[in-house]
Predict the structure of glucan endo-1,3-beta-D-glucosidase.
Amino acid sequence: MARVKFIICAFCMILVMADCQQHGPETIQDIGVNWGLLSTNPIDPRIVVNMLKDNAIKKVKIFDTDPWILSAFSGTDIEVMVGIPNDQLTKISGDIDEAEDWVKNNVSKHLHDGGVNIRYVSVGNEAFLKAYNGSFLKTTFPAMENIQKALNSAGLGGKIKVTSALNADVYDTSTDKPSGGHFRKDIYDVMKQIVKFLDENNSPFLVNIYPFLSLYQNDDFPKDYAFFDSPSRTITDDNNQYTNVFDANLDTLVWALKKAGHPKVSIMIGEIGWPTDGNKHANKNNAKRFYSGFLKKWASKKGSPLRPEPMIAYLFSLLDENTKSVAPGNFERHWGIFSYDGKPKFPIDLSGKDHDKMLVGAKGIRYLEQQWCVLDKDIKNMSSVVPAVSYACSLGDCTSLGPGCSCADLSAVGNASYAFNQFFQNNEQSVEACKFDGLATIVKKDPSPSNGNCVFPIQIYSGGTMLRGGAYMVKGLLIGFVLIFITFI
Ligand SMILES: *[C@@H]1O[C@H](CO)[C@@H](O)[C@H](O)[C@H]1NC(C)=O
Ligand SMILES: *[C@@H]1O[C@H](CO)[C@@H](O)[C@H](O)[C@H]1NC(C)=O
Ligand SMILES: *[C@@H]1O[C@H](CO)[C@@H](O)[C@H](O)[C@H]1NC(C)=O
Ligand SMILES: *[C@@H]1O[C@H](CO)[C@@H](O)[C@H](O)[C@H]1NC(C)=O
């Protein structure tokens, strides 16, 4: 009898295992995410990695090689793309020893058994943006070459691919159609070297494509064309139909590659997403619409008219970042599919099957005290408040206050309170940070308006201040113990 049971059980196991294999991960079909750290209080990386696991996210792109972040991936099978920041390109491009040191200290070190699954190095980040005035024009490609050589001599050349995350502004079209696509004139020579390099090393062209920016930068842009669910505008080009700007943009790149003599280079989407605040087009409904359309398209494996094949894509971004530069626009701090504290913002289905639901939020987040800094209710002269508000906003994050944003409906008093609270929270709720020459006061009742759109946040303990939190907890436990002890006596 026992034996029969065992056999049945073994049979179950096989069934379970077979089932796992059937529905198990298929690397090409895993969506990736970008994880940036430009925040006053970033979440502890271990919590973030658990959140990635809880949501079955298996590909991550980060912007440097911070050991604090990388070590959190140790022993996981999550594929990691690391980055070399633009300010390191000069050093690495000029000296092969620097490149070898970089690989040794930032890559090889993490590759031991139970280490980190590093698969790509992005050399530079959007280094040819027009805003950089060509600052990285001479160093990006030599740095890529040096990193490739260094990886080769470390025996990692086949396993880890070298590329460079580029903004879609490296190409242009002279005809408003994909077939007019070509690399930008001012960077044509270096782009040709780069694509030749990618071709020879079987590395992907990594491009960031932002339909949101098309809409943001141009008031006449047909809104539906930024999404994937409305064929209201169709462009016909060379017998191909384009019903969304993403496909058209991607195929513009395909044409540019073709004209540069390297039509077969594979393409990966380095960043794609939609922000949820900071602009009239940036809200949860639009973000949900965009992601839902994009993920469905991605899951269909149909690609674009000229690249009808599965694609690898990294969503931008995992979490909001409250110290990101707002030079491109106030939306920059609101790209997360999760808010700063790891809460999912809107329903989404990362498998692209259109079964939208809330993702699993970060577990184990610890908030600072439930208290806020607001304008003192006795202050009646609002003009005296103005300089204090500007000061608070110059150092805190007021990007939710503009027209069309989540806190646009606040009164002048609400505005001031919001600004004061942002400054206060980002300074770890220090009493000093809620003075503003006697204009502000700390309250224990949540000042957020009741309609739910505009939230006056409470900051979190970041990974860096974990120890402090840990100490509090130990103290709490001790006190609890003593109390129990006393009760028992
Ligand atoms: C990467 O390696 C370089 C060269 O050894 C080193 O100076 C740098 O600190 C490393 N970067 C990080 C983020 O560890
Ligand atoms: C680029 O040039 C403009 C105009 O000359 C200047 O204002 C800006 O600061 C420069 N940016 C960088 C990153 O050098
Ligand atoms: C309000 O404050 C401004 C600036 O501090 C000051 O110039 C003005 O006299 C004040 N008005 C009143 C009515 O106190
Ligand atoms: C609140 O602040 C925003 C951003 O500074 C501004 O656009 C808006 O007009 C302000 N609202 C009021 C009522 O002062």
